[in-house]
Amino acid sequence: MSTESHEFLARQPAAVDSAFAVLEAVARLGPGVTARQLTEALPMSRASVYRIIKHLVGNEYLVRTPDLRGFVIGERVRALSWPTAVDPLVSSARDSSGSGSGSGSGSGSGPGPGQ
């Protein structure tokens, strides 16, 4: 492996951490947070924040607000969190209804008509 490749691989975890820091800041600061607000809230250079924002927007992890002034969490982040967020809710509902996890007619699999 070349020295250049090794240096790139050594930087990757930091880049991933930085991207997650930007996503977490957008979630914490709320919909419509501006790039400037993100640069003020994060301990990284302005250039790094803007580069990460550009990458996250390009990959739909962040989406620009309709007025193009700010950002919101994108659908790709929501898609990643959906199975994790739903499973505990479904398990909790199933446990509280006493349906258990056995196979049956599926009567405990969720709300039906009129429920």
Automatic annotation (TrEMBL):
Annotated Gly residues bias: 99-115
Taxonomically, the superkingdom here is: Bacteria
Species of provenance: Nocardioides alpinus
Q: Where do the HTH iclR-type domain residues begin and end?
A: 13-75
- Spell out the Pfam families in the cross-references: HTH_IclR
Protein name as annotated: IclR helix-turn-helix domain-containing protein
Q: Where is this region: Disordered?
A: 90-115
InterPro entries linked to this entry: Tscrpt_reg_IclR_N, WH-like_DNA-bd_sf, WH_DNA-bd_sf
Q: Which GO terms describe its molecular function?
A: DNA binding; DNA-binding transcription factor activity
